[in-house]
Amino acid sequence: MAGRVDLDGNQIKPITICMIGAGGFIGSHLCEKLMSETPHKVLAVDVYNDKIKHLLEPATLAWADRIQFHRINIKNDSRLEGLIKMADLTINLAAICTPADYNTRPLDTIYSNFIDALPVVKYCSENGKRLIHFSTCEVYGKTIGAFLPKDSPLRQDPAYYVLKEDESPCIFGPIEKQRWSYACAKQLIERLIYAEGAENGLEFTIVRPFNWIGPRMDFIPGIDGPSEGVPRVLACFSNNLLRREPLKLVDGGESQRTFIYIKDAIEAILLMIENPARANGHTFNVGNPNNEVNVRQLAEMMTQVYSKVSGESSIETPTLDVSSKEFYGEGYDDSDKRIPDMTIINKQLGWNPKTALWDLLESTLTYQHRTYAEAIKQAMSKTTAN
Ligand SMILES: NC(=O)c1ccc[n+]([C@@H]2O[C@H](COP(=O)([O-])OP(=O)(O)OC[C@H]3O[C@@H](n4cnc5c(N)ncnc54)[C@H](O)[C@@H]3O)[C@@H](O)[C@H]2O)c1
Ligand SMILES: O=c1ccn([C@@H]2O[C@H](COP(=O)(O)OP(=O)(O)O[C@H]3OC[C@@H](O)[C@H](O)[C@H]3O)[C@@H](O)[C@H]2O)c(=O)[nH]1
């Protein structure tokens, strides 16, 4: 770790980071990276710590004096400002961010993504502290191309679908499509942070992740999360594969996504942390434009990869079509296509994603199989016995 330099050749000084939402999927990978490869300290704030337990215990770990866990709900805890003051940089990851919640718990979604983030922005601004805030690719909403006639040749022109931080509009559906409660709350907090930068000099970076996936994402229903819970697609499909049941394709599985391996994405965040002069004042797409599939293709690929890593043949009917109303309830809507433009992050940080979709699914599903297959078998045999 000695002699680490930034992109401009300057020595990197150890800093203290207040990481809010450190116990989640992204937070756990970021903590892991910071502990194993950097000298920085982390004040890890979350209501849960299961996903970072391996970094907190035992006290003999090499980095034991560089990470502290604070069990704090940022909605109502006066200790938050003190932690932000103690740190050089705050990273805010805390949010409700699973689509099944956006239309069924729209108030919690809006409070979590806008109201609860307000004090974090305010404390950073008032105390002259740098902020890296996690927004989302969902702020782009639907593509312009989605509104062209189905057979229009313009749909092939990247100008109508590639998403650019400084050019693309944010296109959401009507208010009764409560799916957009999340994207809209994230958009408003982005605008507020930008305004704090413009009017009060807040040093900020906004991150728009495009479907980061990998180990520890969300939960497997009935094993380490509620039986009736609906996580994001990676965990939904993993759960189906582990239980040998068909993967459910919402509205035909036609929506398109680009998936990026969490470990590639974390490299980008580390560059932002350690190169403030290049990252401050910017909004960055972080995704992998080369890994585009529609959800049906994702299901097919996951089925093949899971057969390979588990040694089990796939079931006779591997997918099942369901309507979005049946799966998510009233008020669901969807982003049609999400390809990140990489110009800004390339120019500022020289970063590029590396891992191909097949490879990232192979390492992720190997982890899912190793972590959950036995627990699922036991849970299923108990249900059958009862
Ligand atoms: N994973 C992705 O692909 C993705 C895509 C777009 C945006 N994001 C954004 O990145 C951030 C992190 O996402 P993630 O995938 O790690 O989600 P996650 O749900 O795994 O992590 C969020 C963490 O925040 C914590 N948290 C929520 N409310 C809190 C509160 N009031 N007080 C303290 N802790 C609280 C949760 O307990 C959880 O551990 C979110 O802001 C999300 O909107 C993620
Ligand atoms: O079992 C399932 C689960 C999901 N899906 C579909 O798969 C696609 C991806 O769904 P995900 O649950 O991963 O979530 P989305 O990509 O729609 O949104 C995510 O994007 C960025 C972040 O801000 C959030 O993490 C989340 O909002 C959607 O089209 C969804 O309808 C299925 O077809 N079957």
TrEMBL record:
GO terms for biological process, alphabetical: cell wall organization; UDP-D-apiose biosynthetic process
Cofactor(s) required, per the database record: NAD(+)
Keywords recorded for this protein, A-Z: Cell wall biogenesis/degradation, Cytoplasm, Lyase, NAD
Species per Swiss-Prot/TrEMBL record: Anisodus acutangulus
Reactions catalysed: UDP-alpha-D-glucuronate + H(+) = UDP-alpha-D-xylose + CO2; UDP-alpha-D-glucuronate + H(+) = UDP-alpha-D-apiose + CO2
Annotated compartments: Cytoplasm
One term under GO cellular component: cytoplasm
NAD-dependent epimerase/dehydratase domain span: 17-287
Presence of keyword Metal-binding: no
GO molecular function: identical protein binding; protein heterodimerization activity; UDP-D-apiose synthase activity; UDP-glucuronate decarboxylase activity
Predominant subcellular localization, coarse grouping: cytoplasm
Signal peptide span: none
Highest taxon, organism lineage: Eukaryota
Protein's name according to its UniProt entry: UDP-glucuronate decarboxylase
EC number: 4.1.1.35
Pfam families linked to this entry: Epimerase
Similarity comment: Belongs to the NAD(P)-dependent epimerase/dehydratase family.
InterPro entries linked: Arna-like_SDR_e, Epimerase_deHydtase, Lipid_A_modif_metabolic_enz, NAD(P)-bd_dom_sf
PANTHER family, A to Z: BIFUNCTIONAL POLYMYXIN RESISTANCE PROTEIN ARNA, UDP-D-APIOSE_UDP-D-XYLOSE SYNTHASE 2-LIKE
